Amino acid sequence: MIRQTLTSLSSIAGIGADTIIDVRAPLEFAEDHIPGAINLPVLSDDERAQVGTIYTRQSAFLARKVGAALVAANASRHLQGPLADKQGDWQPLVYCWRGGQRSGSFATILDQVGWRVHLIEGGYRSYRKQVTARLYDTPLPHRIRLIDGGTGTAKTALLHHLRDAGAQILDLEGLAAHRGSLFGSLDIAQPSQKMFESRLAAELEALDPAQITWVEGESSKIGGRMIPPALWAAMIAAPRIEVSAPIAARAAFLATAYADLTQDREKLNQQIGQLSSYHAAATITGWHALAEGADWETLAGELMSQHYDPRYTKSQARADQTPEQFTLEALDPETLADAARSLIEQFS
Fold this sequence. Notes:
By secondary structure, this protein is an alpha/beta fold. The protein contains 16 helices and twelve strands. Helix 4 (about 60-80) crosses helix 5 and helix 13 (about 265-275) packs antiparallel against helix 14 (about 280-290).
């Protein structure tokens, strides 16, 4: 039996499907999809373009005929490949762009096999409207508290220790695949803006609004990804905990946390070079020399004291709220774990 599911994010999550299947073409899937979905396209990118061309230049009937043959062939490959081991009690949730022919055709085939199939009413387009409504149009109900502080104060690590201690967190940098600064890019590409928002909406849906959700203080963009308006407004209004630590402890922490960057001298030198519009040539030359000499802690210390800290202080001067201060003398894992437990006891 094929069942249409509602289009709300909660109803999609509540279906309890064993597998979410996105049958759109790979390029569509790559731009955005429901988190956790797998891509079993019933038309490849080239096939989709081919059917569209036939539709516009020849006839809708011929396009449907050619499309049906391609869908059947691709469905056969999926049944003999990724779906070959699925048992009779397996329940898939299937969607395409509009909840039309692509998902309907594949769902019918799966239904004929004997599986209980769910379809997203309105397809991905309906799902995307729900994500937009959640992140752009509706105030968030969550009780957010920010972990703020200058560069190198181990905010992300502290956030993870809060999670490990049982607190509820929202890891924006993890969702955006970026560490949130000029030197914060990772070896993996950032998701598209839409994919970032899908991940974010799924995380928010899983959180309990009645509990405190700890979030790291960020600028309005993480790398190239914008924090959507509803969340950004909630972050601006949220109470803040400002973490501080001695610059030597921060430098030592950064030298370890950014070990991947210190191993890529060319990338590091490029990123140092991007600061040339903010600092004198002699300063930039000195930082390049520290990088060449692998004096990571001195380099980190100078970057913080001369570049990041002045900008952080200036940004905090414009803030509407005075944060609660939380001072750490060290930033090792044991100290951060103790700090996380202390924060939970104090603010839960």
